[in-house]
Specification:
4 helices; 7 strands
Length: about 150
């Protein structure tokens, strides 16, 4: 069965939290996701669904010609199957459709798997944010791409 990517809605939060908790040490809360979906006019979140189960999600903020990926995650048992690539590609297409010209994100300097994925979409390293991650003070690599 083919996965489906669609806009996240409030009823998806329970399943999204399972993906979140299986993917990150410092996780977003239910309240954060609710605020992002219901109140943040710049937020755009999408879920990847396989046989009615949410197996991944991606979020971004788009403001004028700039977009920032806020988070992306796939359940561990579904990693290595190009689902993250599908999600990221979908977000890039949505950003272009919104008129976004530049896309950026932060990624752990140790997360070479994610960095390699982002490079497939043309993102390049643009700098380091020292001590960015609060769980272990790991640095973040800032990556960006011109979409147009």
């Amino acid at each position: 069965m083919n996965p489906v990517i669609r806009k996240m809605d409030l009823s998806d939060i329970d399943q999204v939290l399972k993906v979140e908790k299986s993917s990150f040490v410092s996780t977003w809360t239910r309240d954060i996701f609710q605020q992002e979906i219901a109140l943040n006019q710049h937020a755009h979140y999408y879920v990847l669904e396989l046989e009615e189960q949410i197996i991944g999600y991606i979020g971004m903020w788009a403001v004028f010609e700039d977009a920032q990926i806020t988070n992306i995650a796939v359940l561990p048992e579904f990693r290595g199957k190009k689902y993250g690539e599908k999600l990221f590609g979908h977000a890039c297409k949505q950003a272009v459709a919104m008129g976004v010209e530049r896309l950026s994100l932060e990624v752990r300097v140790s997360n070479t798997v994610a960095q390699n994925l982002y490079r497939k979409f043309g993102l390049v390293a643009g700098g380091i944010r020292k001590g960015y991650y609060t769980d272990n003070q790991e640095d973040a690599m800032v990556m960006w791409v011109h979409l147009k």
